[in-house]
Design a protein that fits this description.
The protein is an alpha+beta fold and 127 residues long. It has a single domain, classed as Glutaredoxin (3-Layer(aba) Sandwich). It is 38% helix and 14% strand. It has six helices and four strands, in the order E-H-E-H-H-H-H-E-E-H. The protein has helices at residues 21-32, 49-59, 72-76, 79-82, 88-95, 119-126, and strands at 12-16, 37-41, 106-109, 112-115. Strands 2-1-3-4 form a four-stranded mixed beta sheet.
Amino acid sequence: MNMDSEGQQSPATFVCYPKCSTCAKARAWLHEHHVAFDERDIKTDNPTQAELTLWHNLSGLPIRRMFNTSGQSYRRLDMKNRLPSMSVEDAVEVLSTDGMLVKRPILLHDHKVLVGFNEETWSQALL
């Protein structure tokens, strides 16, 4: 667990889009399980390339799993066809341009990065 300088557990960071129904379910789950978190709006506080690179590396997921494949930005940019031939670095650069391209929610906790909400996965990682 993350501890601050006084030995208290540091809150997780919950990166979300407030209007997202999956994010609402994840937020409710966090409250229900008493997981302390700070919330960050992915649209108004878009992750940087450095953050996305770190999160991708810590998540252990392929870069395509970091994309919100059902979003309008993904379709508008034709990422379905562009992404397979992109390097990880180029994909991260594109992700950093628009928070709506990034799969959400993302939970950052104790050097773990959980991308998307899956109750079983979150339970195993956090409880």
